[in-house]
Amino acid sequence: LMVYSIIVGEMTVSTTGERLAWLVVGLLTLGVMVFSGKHFFVGAWQSFKNHSANMDTLIALGTGTAWVYSMVVVFVPYAIPEMARHVYFEATAMIIGLIDLGLALELKARGRTSEAIKRLIGLQAKTARVIRDNKELDVA
Predict the structure, then answer these.
(1) pTM listed for this prediction
(2) What is the pLDDT of residues 101-131, one digit of tens each?
(3) Which end of the chain offers a freer environment for a tag, N or C, measured as fewer CB atoms within 10 Å?
(4) What is the pLDDT of residues 33-66, one digit of tens each?
């Protein structure tokens, strides 16, 4: 979708053929939201029930609003001014995809850090030498 917008230009809805094409893209994006982004929406709902907000709330609101607006443009384009008939399915998919990628990289880095800490603990001395009353003693 990003390449399409760069090559073609505008991502607007003006003909019936474009409406059908964008409907298919919207349904594919819904699949991304359900399978890859479900945890954001579940987390946002939990935050909503606790009367708080977190990053999941921001992601769910942003991607959900972009998707809903785009679907409104697809289903009833004549209710929207012509200059505002843009679809934002690519934003929804890219935001969820990039944040999931970041979370995966963070988990990988966290795992490596845990391994490094375990190796450092393994380098720790088993005994220490203490001088008491001018005598050297090994303490475990």
Answers:
(1) 0.75
(2) 999 999 998 888 888 888 888 888 888 888 8
(3) C
(4) 999 999 999 999 999 999 999 999 999 999 999 9
